Amino acid sequence: MSKQHVKLSIGAAIVVASMVYLMFSGATGSTMYYMTVPELHQQVAAMQGEAIRVSGKVTADPIHWDVRNLQLTFTMGEGEASVPVSYKGVKPDMFQIGADVIVEGQIGQDGTLIASHLMTSCPSKYEEEKPTS
Amino acid sequence: MNDVGGAALQFAFVAALYAIATALIGVRTGRQELIRSAERATFGVFALVSVAMIALLFAILTHDFRVQYVTSVSNLSMPIFYLIASLWGGQEGSMLLWLWVLTLYGAIAVAQNLHRNRELMPYVVPTLMATSILFLAILIFAENPFHELAQAPLDGQGLNPLLQNPLMVIHPPNLYLGFVGFAVPFSFAIGALASGRLDSQWIRSIRRWTLIPWLFLTVGILLGGQWAYVELGWGGYWAWDPVENASLLPWLTATAFLHSVMIQEKKGMLKVWNMSLVILTYGLSIFGTFLTRSGVISSVHAFAESSLGVYFLIYLAIALTIAVALLVWRLPELRSDHRLESVLSRESSFLFNNLFFVGIMFSVLWGTMFPIISEAVRGVKISVAAPFFNQVNVPLGLALLLLSGVCPLIAWRRGSVRNFQRNFLNPLVVSLLGVAVLYGSGIRHVVALISLSICLFTFSTIVLEFYRGTRARRASTGGTAWQAFFSLMTRNRRRYGGYTIHFGVVLIFVGITGSSAYKIERDIVLDPMEQTTVGDFALRYETLESDLQPTHESIRARVEVSRNGRYVTTLFPERRFYFAQNQPTTEVALRTSLLEDLYIILAGFEPSGTATFKVFVNPLMVWLWLGGLVMIIGTLIAIWPERGQSARIGAPGTPTTETAAEQG
Question: In this structure, are A38 and A17 located in the same domain?
């Protein structure tokens, strides 16, 4: 191996090492437990204070939308399990009963999921439900 | 017509199988007529898939609601523009479009090579047809676009109103033209590996075949971002969502390839690496389609959760196994013609460029797949959010931008200290002066300062390159500076097209920096005639106006915008309610200027007239879109055929335009 190759390999190794470092340090800093509502239901207590990302559907329970304070409260569920959600922000267009939602946030003292992000499944190119004939 | 469409797909399936078999038998037995027959079959596949496309379009335009697909994406009240768009507005239709683009590309590639690359074609044809078969199989067995309902409804459900936007009409075809296009370079790579014609001929043949899909993918990604920005109303354009990442992954490896292929053409180095990048890009474009279609990773984009994933995974496993096996088999023949001579050379800067691109690709892939990886390893699904992607990719992206400024200024083979001083002093001074000015004007955001200083540096190296080239050209040919400049551009399209693309990238970085470091986001509640300020803007909410349209009801707020006491504009953030889809939509009110975007959405209102707004001020936002435009122009310059190009394509080692220009 020539001297230049050694230098180049060292340079490349430094770059690769810093990229790997970035990837692992970044991953530990911004992870969230990712679960469905039934999975959350089983371990609500354990999840208190953890950053979580929960997917489920908006249930038929009453939805409160306080326009003045941009406060949205609803229940999300899947199957038998459900969890109350409180979100401060704009109600997304696709938000309605039965919509698939992904919520990011933390479980509060009273078991409410305090959401920092609320995403409805974007309609995208793909239809959600096929019409039944 | 529906039966015709379905039958056309089945015939296409048979024809594609026939093409694979005859091409391979033809090459084994040396019977040219069989290979010719296989090539004709690829035209046949294209014609048959076109028939299926026309049949589906016919069903949509004639409102044939017996067809389930037509019912799910269109209705009677939709204008013709969106009716055509609904051809790719749903799962089955978009797969059909994917397939049609693929067979179109395949037919063009075959037609171009009827007298060239004859050793490669017996393998190129089967590779292209194998990809077609994947999609044909899905369309015939799993997602038949012509599936009929037992009872036709009176009207369809219509295209989702959020998709009824011109950007959304052209965005998917662009992405497909990009994604699908990488199948052609891949098939040539397989052709080169299988036939053993490993000289740089195949690389030259696919030069445009990589740039064109790359252009479409670039445009597709930008359009997707712009659609998200103007339509979804969250004030951003990129969220590191799995679907977005899926489009970015092959773009990153393709961009790496576009750079490293120059090293192979000029120096005969990096042959294995380039081959791997082509295979990887193709693999990632199939993988991306799999990600978006299988529902394996949940995303904000509603995936149809379907059994499609299996098809993609099986196909991907087979394709990659064959490709890697071929590559390993040919490894001894893929040695470099030259060795690297210096760390400070353009060759090595290309190596680092590739390292960064592939590094970014891995980090994006890692982040996207994290829930699956963590579930497999630790048994818990853990996802990583946007901060992860930003933390990793901001430094890597900035390093790449810096490299794009440094790279053209380093000499081939071996750089020197003098070469460095001569080339870097001015850009460095410009960049430092710029930072001083920015700091003086009150900018304290460290990352923004670093980013903008790199932008300035790279920008000035590009200007320097253009200036030097023009001066040299003028010295040798005379004429005005403009004449010299244009003659420079037209004679070195690829090189100066490349610099133009880099300039576009600089603008994009400026836009991203401004809009992320200095974004203002405010929620405000106002009574009619009440006023508030956001950033420099004074906003006065005057009244609510309502309007009834055939398809929707609209309520809009009248907001008067002024700055420093001077009237600027009146904006109308709006909410609509679409009757057919029973869905509200938010229509963003946007005022764009070179300095910043004012972005207002009407979040809600009360019967009293009190309204809630979400207001964003996104500085320098428009530079992102302008940069995209410059990238497109640059790519078109690079793609455009050079005059007398055939004369210039000589054996490797002949001076190319680029080295000639450097000597000038």
Answer: no
